[in-house]
């Protein structure tokens, strides 16, 4: 899904300014839109632009300020990006304003001739001018108590302190009372509110004797606290009015309410609301009893508590609202994934993520974590390394030092030895990391480029049919499906087509937001910040808008799809929403739009099934359009719409969409009625969901929900084709490829009100990340990252290697274990033309033999009789194919001899199989059976069977087989008697002159 590629870029963090002392970077922080980031040192603040990577403004504090207020400790952006709050070592908050200077450029380009200018074209995202910024000191706030964490909001600043342990809130300074729009909101927040951490004010704290060490607030609105005891909480600031209750309380109770919920510097009149915190623990652990007992004893005696360090103590947390997932990093270096808590249900059980560390190196504590904006991957930094994990917990890339010998004096990629902080750049094509200053003073910031699957941008059926990767400036399409069978399974084959995106478009419209591929893999469409472009691999040409104003007038929002040569695009233009149809054969312009369909709400996702276009919009409505070609053009016809209110709680959480139509409706029904009978497939927040229609007495369509799996990252449905794989559903959960065969026929087992779960038919473990399923070749294609270092290079090189896995034997085994031999034969006949078909059958037989032997060894009382078990069905299945004799003997030679008794008790006497091979002139297969007969001691003293086979090989002039047989006879008899007897019984010596040397 995400794979590091190429090599990291290093930024020189010391500004090229006069009289600037080189200082280590303490922290860096990205702006809310991730287009800027700031670097904080002990005495200065520098604002950088992400693309192109260049400093825009710098401000330094005076020595007087450092003495009075303390050194810089941390920096945080306000939600609108107009301010930066600096936290100092002496608990001061320094406010720095960020002013954008219009019509001014921070860098002046050098004047060069037109011929030279052509050699310096702007790269992706570098076509826009660098906007000038100015940083100014707004003021200094003296906080009460030692400040631990700061979290700026739209109208106020929230921070936590340790003495006293509290959470406080102060409003932003107001300078212009004429700002009527914000005046009402700010007036309600005027004053300084304080919430003391105790059982009265925050009763939901599991341990009130703590401080809040980190306050984290995401753009989506999720707010989390990490307390000093290592627990983590979801929190929310609530508003309530108590004016009507004040008169009912006595004086003591009134003071308790005023001081217990929030202490405000303003007058608490009856009309003044008060605010309180609600919280839920999302990361908890049990402290050992001996620690609790020791702490209780120490508290009673007045002595200090023990220095027990909890290994699951939270030090970092990242919230993924798209998949309803929480990632917690601990002080011991472990990572745990936890689902969002729900009301009236027990707390979700956390899942420990496996961290690969083949050399058993120390990772240290987790230092930083961040999810990508699409929610698919988590970037984690440790004291001694870094890693990228998928939402299902699979490690996609990691680095804990370097594996090979390097020149330590010249090696520059210090992020391989530790990461202090990180964030994802816009588009998630780059990861910006900060390394500790202990490793190197200058050049602490690195930018790692990534290639990612196009399904992370748009999860459409065509994007999952091919392995399709998107990079910062190009698209990568897997062409192995068009190559010979052996090229598909050969990892060294270069089967990726690199397609560069036009530089003029990418320079001003970076980053890429949507990528789509046609069903035949020949047409590609790309959409960036504005407009779109498309490409044909047949002509090798891109088409872009000739009129830049038309290109910049709209934004693709909701996705792109190809219907033959017609591009379907969901766009937003002037706060209105449309579906546009463009032809590949015509130039891109507003005049050449084939059809415009106006919508009332923005599109969440598009999906195409045959000639049916499914449109799911933000108002929780699914619309069905038929694509109708006419003599002159092509248009959309609305067949119907249906709402999912009460079924889908959050429309923005829908990641994939498709449907399955019953065969009777396909053949005899009216397409207008498809929506009423279709089974709708969705991926909602990582849940693979099937919605089955059910008509009530009023003919109103209701849906029964079936949840197939949780945390699904990759989903694909095969609507037509090969045997039981028709209407099969494929989903990847981070560890296994899970397959539901004929998902349309699976009956719902739940009630109408409660969703039911369905176990998969087949589970395929994979040691790489899948990108596509080549159904006609029986192969799953994927990729895994590789990192290489060289003694003569000062950096690490990243690449992704193609991997493959046969899935045919997994599906066949499911049929055979179910006693469905006929269905297995029907499915296998579609693949018997493949070069590796016999190999797949051999894997099938080997896995069944090994699994049954394992069961017998674990429980001898359940030992299957020769006439029972899956192995009988497998042998019956193999008899339908000519390669069965080869498959059996190859499997036997690769398994232990203790398994042979069970195997040949079902297959038959190996001597009889040897005779069958001789009769059918399969001499090499017969030669393999000779080894089996020898190990089973079924060869006579004169080796008549070997002599007979040798005679047949001589007649067939298969000299290679003759050599192997003679070598075999020599190996079983060191005296040479068997070899001399065989030579005397054949005419091989007489034909000595004809033998191949």
Question: Brief overview, please?
Answer:
The chain is of the alpha+beta class and 997 residues long. The longest helix is centred in the last third of the chain and has 22 residues, at 837-858.
Account of the 3D structure:
- There is one protein chain.
- The protein has 23 helices and 56 strands.
- A hairpin with a 2-residue loop joins β37 (555-563) and β38 (566-573).
- The longest helix has 22 residues, at 837-858.
- α13 (808-817) runs antiparallel to α14 (821-829) and α17 (884-893) packs parallel to α20 (923-935).
- It is of the alpha+beta class.
- Strands 1, 2, 27, 28, 29, 30, 31 and 32 form an eight-stranded antiparallel sheet that branches.
Give the overall shape, derived from the CA principal axes: globular
> Structural class of the secondary structure composition?
alpha+beta
Let me know the average pLDDT.
85
First and last CA, distance: 53 Å
Count of separate DSSP helical elements: 23
Number of strands: 56
Low-confidence stretches: 184-189, 243-261, 265-270, 992-997
Percent in strands:
35-45%
Helix content: 10-25%
Main beta sheet, described? 8 strands, antiparallel
Q: What is the CA-based Rg, rounded?
A: 34 Å
């Amino acid at each position: 899904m995400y794979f590091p590629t190429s090599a990291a870029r290093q930024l020189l963090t010391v500004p090229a300014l006069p009289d600037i002392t080189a200082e280590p970077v303490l922290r860096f922080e990205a702006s809310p839109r991730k287009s800027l980031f700031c670097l904080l040192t002990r005495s200065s603040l520098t604002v950088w632009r992400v693309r192109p990577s260049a400093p825009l403004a710098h401000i330094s504090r005076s020595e007087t300020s450092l003495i009075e207020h303390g050194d810089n400790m941390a920096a945080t952006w306000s939600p609108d990006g107009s301010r930066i709050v600096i936290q100092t070592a002496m608990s001061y908050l320094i406010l720095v304003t960020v002013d954008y200077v219009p019509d001014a450029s921070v860098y002046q380009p050098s004047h060069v001739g037109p011929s030279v200018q052509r050699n310096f074209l702007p790269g992706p995202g570098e076509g826009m001018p660098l906007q000038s910024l100015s940083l100014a000191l707004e003021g200094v706030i003296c906080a009460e108590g030692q400040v631990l964490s700061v979290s700026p909001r739209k109208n106020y600043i929230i921070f936590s302190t340790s003495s006293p342990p509290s959470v406080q809130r102060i409003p932003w300074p107001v300078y212009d009372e004429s700002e009527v729009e914000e005046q009402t909101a700010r007036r309600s927040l005027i004053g300084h509110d304080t919430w003391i951490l105790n059982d009265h004010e925050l009763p939901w704290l599991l341990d009130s004797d703590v401080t809040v060490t980190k306050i984290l607030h995401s753009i989506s609105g999720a707010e989390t606290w990490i307390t000093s005891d290592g627990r983590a909480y979801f929190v929310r600031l609530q508003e309530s009015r108590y004016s009507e209750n004040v008169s009912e309380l006595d004086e003591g109770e009134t003071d308790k309410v005023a001081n217990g919920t929030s202490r405000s510097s303003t007058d608490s009149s009856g009309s003044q609301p008060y605010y309180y915190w609600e919280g839920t623990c999302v990361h908890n652990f049990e402290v050992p009893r001996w620690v609790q007992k020791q702490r209780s004893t120490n508290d009673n005696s007045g002595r200090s508590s023990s220095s027990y360090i909890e290994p699951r103590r939270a030090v970092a947390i990242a919230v993924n609202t798209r998949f309803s997932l929480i990632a917690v990093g601990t002080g011991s270096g472990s990572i745990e994934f936890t689902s969002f808590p729900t009301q009236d249900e027990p707390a979700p059980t956390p899942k420990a993520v496996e961290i690969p560390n083949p050399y058993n190196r120390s990772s240290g504590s987790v230092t930083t974590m961040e999810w990508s904006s699409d929610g698919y991957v988590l970037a984690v930094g440790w004291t001694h390394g870094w890693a990228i994990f998928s939402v299902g917990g699979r490690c996609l890339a990691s680095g804990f030092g370097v594996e090979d010998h390097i020149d330590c004096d010249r090696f520059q990629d210090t992020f391989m030895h530790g990461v202090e902080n990180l964030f994802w750049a816009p588009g998630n094509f780059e990861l910006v990391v900060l390394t500790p200053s202990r490793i190197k003073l200058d050049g602490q910031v690195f930018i790692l480029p990534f290639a990612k699957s196009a399904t992370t941008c748009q999860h459409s059926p065509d994007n999952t049919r091919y392995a399709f990767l998107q990079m910062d400036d190009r698209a990568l399409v897997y062409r192995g499906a068009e190559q010979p069978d052996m090229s598909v399974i050969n990892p060294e084959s270069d089967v990726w087509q690199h397609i560069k995106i036009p530089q003029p478009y990418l320079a001003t419209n970076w980053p890429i937001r949507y990528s789509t591929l046609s069903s035949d893999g020949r047409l590609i469409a790309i959409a960036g910040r504005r407009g779109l472009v498309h490409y044909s691999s047949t002509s090798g040409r891109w088409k872009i808008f000739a009129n830049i104003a038309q290109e910049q007038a709209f934004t693709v929002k909701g996705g792109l799809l190809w219907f033959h040569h017609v591009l379907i695009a969901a766009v937003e233009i002037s706060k209105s929403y449309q579906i546009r149809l463009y032809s590949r054969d015509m130039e891109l312009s507003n005049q050449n739009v084939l059809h415009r369909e106006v919508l009332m709400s923005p599109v969440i996702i598009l999906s195409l099934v045959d000639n049916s276009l499914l449109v799911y919009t933000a108002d929780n409505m699914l619309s069905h359009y038929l694509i109708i070609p006419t003599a002159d053009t092509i248009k959309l016809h609305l067949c119907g719409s249906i709402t999912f209110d009460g079924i889908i709680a959050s429309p923005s959480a829908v990641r994939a969409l498709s449907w399955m139509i019953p065969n009777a409706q396909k053949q005899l029904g009216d397409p207008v009625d498809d929506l009423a009978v279709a089974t709708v497939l969705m991926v909602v927040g990582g849940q693979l969901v099937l919605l089955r229609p059910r008509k009530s007495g009023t003919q109103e369509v209701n849906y029964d929900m079936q949840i197939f799996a949780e945390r699904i990252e990759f989903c694909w449905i095969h609507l037509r084709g090969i045997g039981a794989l028709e209407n099969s559903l494929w989903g990847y959960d981070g560890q296994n490829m899970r397959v539901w065969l004929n998902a349309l026929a699976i009956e719902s087992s739940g009630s109408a009100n409660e969703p039911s779960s369905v176990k998969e038919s087949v589970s395929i473990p994979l040691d790489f990340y899948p990108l596509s399923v080549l159904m006609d070749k029986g192969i799953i294609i994927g990729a895994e990252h590789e990192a290489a270092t060289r003694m003569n290079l000062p950096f690490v090189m990243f690449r992704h290697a193609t991997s493959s896995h046969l899935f045919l034997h997994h599906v066949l085994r499911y049929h055979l274990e179910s006693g469905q031999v006929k269905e297995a034969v029907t499915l296998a006949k579609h693949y018997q033309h493949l070069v590796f078909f016999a190999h797949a059958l051999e894997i099938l037989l080997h896995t069944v033999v090994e699994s049954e032997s394992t069961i017998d060894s674990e429980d001898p009382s359940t030992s299957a009789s020769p006439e029972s078990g899956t192995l009988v069905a497998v042998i019956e299945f193999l008899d339908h194919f000519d390669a069965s004799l080869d498959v059996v003997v190859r499997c036997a030679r690769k398994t232990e001899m203790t398994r042979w008794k069970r195997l040949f008790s079902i297959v038959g006497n190996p001597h009889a199989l040897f005779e069958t091979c001789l009769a059918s002139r399969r001499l090499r297969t017969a030669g393999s059976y000779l080894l089996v007969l020898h190990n089973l001691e079924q060869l006579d003293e004169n080796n008549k069977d070997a002599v007979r086979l040798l005679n047949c090989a001589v007649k067939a002039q298969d000299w290679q087989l003759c050599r192997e047989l003679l070598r075999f006879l020599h190996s079983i008899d060191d005296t040479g008697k068997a070899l001399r007897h065989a030579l005397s019984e054949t005419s091989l010596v007489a034909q000595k002159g004809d033998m191949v040397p």
